[in-house]
Design brief:
alpha+beta, two-stranded antiparallel ribbon
Length: 145
């Protein structure tokens, strides 16, 4: 798979750009609404994608090898789904043909985050949320459950 093909798998939800807290004793991962300082909350895109690793050294570059080991990838992540041999959801831009369906379906973090620049690390626990870790894969509009 070419780099462009690999990159096209990203649905633009930006859930991976949320900061997570891991319990040292249990290994349980808690998601926060505190986003990477480079995340544009309106577009769900990185403000400086080409230089993100220089600006945010702990930014994880997803690849075919590490996708299987990253416990914090959301259940709707295309990289994770393909690794598990599952299909992409209807709202994924490669399926829908529309990059906005991920937002319309309520999957993305659009307008639900606060920048890590505004929240000290010791206060991140106040921003724990459960929605990113849930399989929020609503049915296609007009279909019945």
């Amino acid at each position: 798979m070419s780099t462009a093909e690999w990159e096209s798998l990203c649905d633009g939800c930006a859930r991976c750009c949320l900061n997570k807290l891991e319990d040292e004793d249990t290994g349980v991962i808690e998601w926060t609404a505190v986003a990477c300082r480079l995340l544009d909350d309106k577009t769900c895109r990185c403000k400086d994608y080409p230089h993100r690793h220089d600006l945010v050294p702990d930014c994880v570059q997803l690849n075919a090898r590490n996708v299987t080991t990253l416990k914090w990838l959301p259940p709707t992540c295309a990289y994770r789904l393909l690794d598990e041999g599952r299909d992409l959801y209807w709202w994924h831009p490669l399926v829908s043909g529309d990059p906005d369906t991920v937002h319309k379906a309520g999957i993305s973090v659009r307008n639900r985050t606060v920048s890590e620049e505004l929240v000290p690390l010791e206060e991140w626990e106040r921003f724990i949320v459960d929605w990113p870790a849930k399989n929020q894969a609503p049915r296609r509009p007009g279909t019945r459950r």
